[in-house]
Design goal:
By secondary structure, the chain is an alpha+beta fold. The chain contains 13 helices and ten strands. The strands form two sheets. It has a seven-stranded mixed β-sheet, sandwiched between helices. It binds 3,4-dihydroxyphenylalanine.
Length: 336
């Protein structure tokens, strides 16, 4: 009888596990309800009295050995657990790649085009003050041109507002840098306007500014022509006289889109022409506002909305789609 217990003791101490299953089998064999230990305790009654003491000690030793072994196996799997659970031959999880937002795709493309001709990218804050958004741009208080851009004010303070255009970045940059200046300022702008399929209270613009000696309107025109050729593959443009408080003369630029398809008819309203930006020669009084000598320097500026261009390039019919972040829409730009 004691031999049997000794044998079991050896078995327990020499047991090695091949894994979780194996350990569980071992546990059930010794510690299970119908396991060896219970069985041995059960037999205690049958043991002759004079042997009871030794029997009791032996089975207690065995019980402790089993407990110690299980503890050892448990800590071993905890250490190597990760490896044991992992099947290293299993194929990996597919990594879902994100997509660039179409607005960013086009913004990056515009940045690249202008970078290739020497424009640096500049940024300014979205929360602006009156000076940078309006006054320095030749729109003093009560100037009627302020009505062209309905403004969000913050906490009723007329000097804390969400910028209505990226032209504010022109002022910030000129205040802090000497000519020659050649910058592109892409960014988000805000206007207190009703949201519809064609307009949104939040949108994006790109501002351009070039200040140097002897900059002329011809420089402006050829730069824009280069830009439209690169972005749209269309080099025919026209400039219509327009008005902006911060440029003189001012113009709006139309690209000749053509009338080759139904879509061309629709997007150009049958004219073949499409308006894409405002521009002009920086007004001398704007230069004065930022302490640049208008006798020595001149320059041009331009500004355009990004959403409209994206809608045009990718045939997107509703501006609100840009802000919904619907994955079904965004995933379509994966390969671009
Ligand atoms: N800031 C103008 C707007 O939001 C766009 C603009 C027009 C910018 C002419 C310019 C410019 O720099 O020269 O409507």
């Amino acid at each position: 009888m004691f031999d049997n217990i000794d044998q079991l003791l050896t078995e327990v101490s020499s047991f090695t596990s091949k894994g979780k299953e194996d350990t569980e089998q071992f546990r059930l064999r010794f510690n299970g309800k119908k396991g060896i230990l219970n069985d041995l305790f059960e037999k205690f009654k049958e043991v002759p009295n004079e042997q009871k003491k030794e029997y009791g000690q032996r089975i207690n030793t065995l019980k402790q050995a089993v407990a110690a072994k299980l503890e050892e196996l448990k800590s071993a799997t905890e250490i190597t657990g990760a490896q044991e659970k992992e099947d290293l031959t299993r194929p990996g999880f597919p990594l879902e790649t994100g997509t660039r937002h179409p607005i960013n795709i086009v913004r990056n493309r515009i940045n690249e085009i202008f970078r290739s001709i020497g424009f640096a990218v500049a940024e300014g804050p979205e929360i602006e003050d009156d000076w940078h958004n309006f006054s320095a741009l030749n729109m003093p208080e009560y100037h009627p041109a302020r009505d062209m851009q309905d403004t969000f004010f913050i906490e009723q303070n007329p000097d804390v507002l969400l910028r209505t255009h990226t032209s504010s970045v022109q002022i910030r940059y000129m205040e802090n840098n000497e000519p020659p200046i050649r910058i592109l300022a892409p960014g988000r702008v805000f206007r207190n306007e009703a949201v519809s399929a064609r307009s949104h209270c939040i949108f994006h613009q790109v501002e351009g500014l070039y200040i140097d000696e002897n900059v002329s309107f011809a420089d402006l025109k050829q730069t824009i022509q280069y830009f439209t050729t690169e972005l749209f593959g269309k080099s025919k443009i026209r400039m219509r006289p327009s008005y902006f408080p911060f440029t003189e003369p001012s113009a709006e630029v139309d690209v000749y889109w053509g009338l080759n398809s139904e879509t061309d008819y629709r997007i150009t309203k049958g004219t073949g022409w499409l308006e894409i930006m405002g521009c002009g020669m920086v007004d001398p009084s704007v230069l004065q506002n930022v302490n640049i000598d208008p006798e020595k320097y001149s320059g041009y500026a331009f500004g355009m909305g990004i959403e409209r261009i994206v809608m045009l390039l990718y045939q997107i019919g509703d501006i609100r789609m840009f802000f919904e972040n619907d994955k079904r829409m965004l995933e379509q730009f994966k390969s671009i």
